Amino acid sequence: MPQERMLTVTGEEEGIRADRYLAGHLPELSRSYIQQLISDGRVTSGGRKIKASRPVAAGEMLHLLIPDPVVPDIRPEPMELHILYEDEDILIVDKPKGLTVHPAPGHWSGTLVNGLLAHCGSELSGINGVLRPGIVHRIDMNTSGVLVVCKTDSAHRCIAEQLRVHSITRLYRGVVIGNLPDDEGTVTGAIGRSPKDRKKMAVVREGGKPAVTHYRVLERFGSYTSCEFRLETGRTHQIRVHMASIGHPLLGDDVYGPFRCSFRLNGQTLHAMVLGFRHPRTGQYMEWTAPLPPYFAELLETLRSQSSS
Q1: Does residue 165 surpass a pLDDT of 70?
Q2: Residues 218-225: what's their mean pLDDT?
Q3: Which residue has the higher pLDDT, 245 or 103?
Q4: What does DSSP assign to residue 83?
Q5: 3-class secondary-structure state, position 220
Q6: Residue 30 CB neighbours (<10 A)
Q7: Across residues 164-193, what is the average pLDDT?
Q8: How far apart are CA 87 and CA 150, in angstroms?
């Protein structure tokens, strides 16, 4: 049976585009998937179909019918997974650098999802569509670190709600170019598609989603700075975009930073180190740490050696 959802618009939310409003309340669904539901007539107000661009009104009730997930046409592929924790509800994985999380054009195989299907079989939540079973949030292909995978729809909804209200702990380690002027700080700025390059994200004045990144300096190496980042929000490429916006892009980031890099790195030097949240079944707060990958630890040693010489 299709999943039925009812949402009532508050006064503060009046005037927001319907697809943006729904994306804000249903973080487990991608905005493109929500737009597809609207296009298919599965979102109504007062019994009438709506358009994605229509502003919502205070007191309006939106009715969604989310179809049952189709069995993914993705082949399970046995692969070595670094599992930090597993029970009947969730799986915590330490994702290596270079591994794409879910299938997409150009990456239909060899993804984390392919490996998860081989490991879990049918025990993955289906809320987020056929290409992303079990995936509540993701990290970029060239970002390593800890990631939660949901086995049940109830676990998926619980963790997605914690993501929505920003109660999940997410700490990253990264190395940025340049010497940050302050030992700690906060970068704010709505993130959306770059008006100059639709393949990139950017801090934008209109049409973006609010984003907040806190940083703390761990070590200084003259021309580079090692930092810890704490996310309040989880926008696409958030840390990469925010740090580039203040003139300190991540080392190795050939999208938001300089094309040339003095070190042999495959993409940005960024690692999702700590993830913590309330367990969806027990309600107990749990936290996991993924150690720095070898390339990252070796880079820090090289930077220490260069800065002291």
Answers
A1: yes
A2: 96
A3: 245
A4: E
A5: strand
A6: 16
A7: 95
A8: 10
The strand ranges marked E within 71-159 are 83-86, 90-95, 144-150
Question: What does the block give as tokens for 197?
Answer: 């390059």
DSSP state of 106: T
Give, in order, the Cα–Cα distances in Å from 141 to each of 102, 126, 191. 10, 22, 19
Tokens 């190395």, residue located: 175
Among 23-27, 35-39, 52-56, 146-150, where is mean pLDDT lowest?
23-27
Q: For the stretch 165-192, what's the b/e string if a residue is b when 16 or more beta carbons lie within 10 angstroms of its beta carbon?
A: eeebebbbbbbbbeebeeeeeebebbbb
Q: Is 87 a catalytic residue?
A: no
Structure tokens at 258: 């300089």
Active-site hit among 19, 89, 140, 253:
140
Cβ burial of 208 (10 Å; 0-12, 13-18, 19+) is middle
Q: Which tokens is 9 given?
A: 């618009």
pLDDT at 263 > cutoff 70 = yes
The DSSP annotation for 10-48 comes to -GGGTT-BHHHHHHHH-TTS-HHHHHHHHHTT-EEETTE
d(CA 189, CA 205): 8
